[in-house]
Specification:
flat; mainly beta; 7-stranded antiparallel β-sheet; 8-stranded antiparallel β-sheet; 38% strand; 820 residues
Length: 820
């Protein structure tokens, strides 16, 4: 076959392959993979339940962000083909389009929430995904083609309690899930389903035949009985902001195939020749839908998940990221201490091998054509030294058996909750009226979000307190209690719009660990030294200091001499500087944000720090000089707190030994050196570290860890081409890690066959190359066949003699490196 014909055939095959690829791609929603820590359906319900219904945009922004980030069930990504044919003006036309198997849902495979939404949001999501909403005829076609036709289950309600709240949505979602499970395993998740909702549709009645003063309606249709008859005729009497439990959003891919030719749903609906394939609204425009969409205004970015503060050891790798809602394309630029980071142009900012130079305040600016928004600040703290740890608990598992728990109340009636290994990462809170999720605590590893949570005075209206003490622990001499804390409160700044907001996180040292300690009105015995602060700044005294009394009630310390506090009210400049807004909602308090707390006892001096700033310091003149640590919560006001919003979380608790010498993070004294060697030689690298031994080592080649190479030196024998590249070492100790500078290994592969000649009827030549590398001499009599080579001998560089050469009319020679 001529070469030209082969090329033409290949070209046709490529075109056919590309067409097949396009059809396959059109059957999958274009979304990123679902994150492993994404919200489940019920978690999402808990987050959006307090949010106001549209036109307030917050709930819809949350929905948009969840879909855009890929938080939908995996089985929902695979679309179902729908094929229909019709004779139009004597010509038979066939169209195939692809519809989602179920109404749009948020969550995981088995924990998902069928999410009602306005047509405006549905249109924004459709554009994002390259989709459209269906017409009424398409709803009928989809119902006909579905594998599982469920029986509609309308809810009973009255006008005083209309079914438009998230609570109603959740109830109906639970009913549908219960019904859906009855069809397992015959109809598994991912099979196409209909009959469980009515559809928000594309219709000419979005813009025509308006009624009841509704100038911008949502148009709904469907919810077929199993006979195919819809419960809901086409209806446009609700505002575009209306939604109820029965509204479903079915995504249909715009890409379609009409009579074998690629097209779009919108193109078909606006074409009078073929619109009847997908629309039967003949009474205005002969089946066409001139505007097959809802008109949506451009939406500026809104940040749903903020970057969070982190406290790491030197040498750590970390990232800051945001989740935002806004019409694409979105642009990002990150700043550190208000200075633009040249490489920070993605939604995630990655930092590797951090040092103190990376510490600071990080923010990101998110923009699109409609506007710009800036994130709340996140703080990066990098420590270059640490002390030996005497005790720690990160509460990633339920460790309640390792702690003693005590409670007290002025009326002696229990009124508290405790939650161990509590996943606060799915817990919403409000900040200046906006809902966010609690981020990982600064000292959490790998972004874990488990802690211990307390509430008090939830229903009884009486002063109360709770304490926990680790069992079997006692600390003396110089030591430090450290932990991350989140103190939440209801309402807005300073607890506005709510009651019972002022509660105090309490924590201290030098306890027996055998009784409750809080600001009780009466007690037979108290002990230890503790401090406390509220989150909302709603009291005259926001920062507290106490000392116990073995003979009775604790003593509250006042004034800078007794308490060590320079100021006790949150309005003092030391606090307003330490806790500005943002990140604090109430200026001067560490409420609704993570704080890093530390209580040091060093040579009889007590120091209380928050985020590294000393807020109390005094000489310990009490008899409580050693003992256990305490964490707790107290309410010293009878007003009842809302337990949904008033609580404290502790995470990453540890006690460090300040009597021991500090451990300093590694530094590099001598970097490995580059070298250029020949094949077969040995390569040697070494690194020398400063800091506090013992050190651990790990060598890398071109960014990949070398297995078993965990010494300060690296020896590679008989190097080959694959050994060439960039080498560096990571040095690790208890205070952090660091990377050495790079060393490059260059390998010379030059060798040659030279000086060919016949001597005494024998053919000989010289092999030149690295003297420690062996080579295999191969011969061939026919260069037209690349496999026709035969090995003669393996030698080091030298003169090679072929005594049989004269037996062949033609002979070719080559040398290739041989392994030792």
């Amino acid at each position: 076959m001529p070469v030209k014909s082969i090329a033409q055939k290949l070209s046709l095959s490529v075109v056919c392959w590309l067409a097949c690829v396009c059809m396959v791609r059109s059957q999958t929603l274009n979304l990123p993979p679902r994150a492993t820590n994404a919200l489940g359906g019920q978690q999402f319900v808990n987050v959006i339940s307090p949010m106001l219904a549209p036109p307030d945009a917050q709930r819809e922004n949350w929905i948009y962000a969840q879909v855009a980030s890929g938080n939908i069930p995996n089985w929902m990504r695979n679309l179902t083909p729908v094929t229909t044919s019709q004779v139009v003006n004597g010509v038979n036309h066939t169209i195939t389009y692809y519809a989602a198997p179920e109404y749009l849902a948020i969550g995981s495979t088995n924990d998902y929430f069928l999410e009602p939404m306005t047509p405006l949001l549905a249109q924004r999501i459709a554009v994002l995904l390259g989709c459209t909403l269906p017409t009424s005829r398409m709803v009928d076609q989809i119902w006909t083609n579905t594998q599982l036709k469920m029986e509609p289950m309308p809810l009973t309600y009255n006008q005083t309690n209309p079914p438009i709240t998230v609570a109603w949505f959740d109830t109906y979602n639970s009913n549908i899930w219960a019904q859906r499970q009855t069809y397992f395993p015959t109809y598994p998740l991912g099979d196409s389903v209909a009959g469980d909702k009515k559809d928000v549709i594309i219709s000419i009645e979005i813009y025509n035949e308006l009624q009841n003063g509704v100038t911008t309606p949502v148009v709904i249709y469907g919810w077929q009985y199993q006979t195919g008859v819809p419960i809901q005729p086409i209806y446009n009497g609700h505002s575009e902001y209306y939604m109820d439990y029965s509204h479903g959003i079915r995504m249909v891919q715009q890409a379609a195939i009409l009579d074998g030719v690629p097209t779009t749903i919108s193109a078909v609906l606006t074409n009078p020749v073929v619109a009847a394939l997908l629309s039967d609204e003949t009474y205005f425009t002969g089946n066409t839908v001139p505007q097959p969409y809802y008109t949506v205004a451009a939406t500026a970015p809104v940040i749903i998940t903020q970057p969070y503060s982190q406290s790491v050891k030197q040498g750590a790798n970390l990232s800051f990221s945001v989740l935002s809602a806004g019409d694409p394309p979105l642009t990002y630029y990150w700043e550190r201490n208000s200075q633009v980071i040249a490489s920070g142009t993605n939604l995630t900012l990655s930092l590797t091998n951090v040092t103190g130079a990376n510490a600071g305040t990080y923010t990101v600016v998110v923009s699109n054509n409609a506007g710009t928004t800036t994130s709340l600040p996140a703080f990066l703290t990098v420590s270059s030294n640490s002390f030996p740890v005497l005790f720690s608990d990160n509460f990633d598992t339920d460790t309640s058996a390792n702690w003693s728990f005590f409670w007290g109340a002025n009326d002696n009636l229990a009124d508290y909750t405790t939650n161990w290994a509590y996943d606060y990462g799915a817990m919403p809170y409000t900040y200046n009226g906006v809902t966010y999720l609690i981020p990982p605590a600064p000292n959490s590893t790998n972004g874990t979000t488990s802690g211990v949570m307390f509430t008090v005075n939830n229903i009884k209206g009486s002063d109360a307190g709770v304490n926990i003490y680790p069992k079997g622990q006692s600390f003396s001499g110089n030591f430090a209690l450290k932990f991350d804390i989140w103190n939440n409160y209801p309402g807005g700044a300073e607890g506005s719009g709510a009651s019972g907001t002022t509660q105090y996180a309490i924590f201290g040292i030098n306890f027996l660990g055998t009784e409750v300690n809080w600001a009780a009105a009466s007690a037979t015995s108290t002990d230890g030294i503790w401090f406390g602060n509220d989150g909302d700044g709603g009291a005259t005294v926001d920062y507290l200091a106490y000392v116990g009394n073995h003979a009775g009630v604790q003593t509250e310390l006042f004034g800078p001499t007794a308490s060590g506090l320079s100021q006790s009210n949150h309005t003092a400049s030391i606090y307003t500087t330490l806790f500005p807004s943002p990140p604090s909602e109430t200026v001067g308090t560490p409420g609704k944000t993570w704080a890093q707390v530390e209580i040091d006892q060093t040579n009889g001096i007590l120091v209380w720090k928050i985020n590294g700033t000393i807020i109390a310091q005094r000489t310990n003149s009490s008899s409580y000089t050693s003992g256990n640590i305490m964490l707790g919560l107290m309410d010293i006001f009878p007003s009842i707190a809302d337990p949904l919003d008033c609580w404290v979380i502790y995470d990453n608790v540890r006690v460090e030994n300040l009597s021991a010498a500090p451990i300093f993070a590694p530094t590099i004294s001598t970097n490995p050196q580059s070298s250029s060697l020949s094949l077969g030689e040995n390569a040697f690298f070494s690194v020398t570290a400063g800091g506090t031994p013992p050190f651990g080592y790990q060598w890398f080649l071109n960014g990949a860890a070398l297995g078993g190479q965990t010494n300060s030196t690296l020896l590679i024998t008989n190097i080959q081409s694959a050994n060439a590249g960039e080498y560096y070492a990571q040095v690790i100790n208890g205070a952090g890690s660091t990377l050495s500078g790079p060393a490059f290994l260059t390998i010379s592969t030059n060798w040659a066959l030279t000086a060919p000649q016949f001597v005494n009827k024998q053919f000989q030549f010289t092999l030149q190359g690295p003297t420690n590398q062996r080579y295999t001499i191969e011969v061939s009599t026919n260069l037209s066949n690349s496999t026709n080579w035969t090995s003669l001998q393996t030698i080091y560089p030298s003169t090679f003699v072929d005594s049989t050469a004269s037996n062949f009319p033609t002979r070719f020679y080559r040398a290739i490196p041989a392994s030792r």
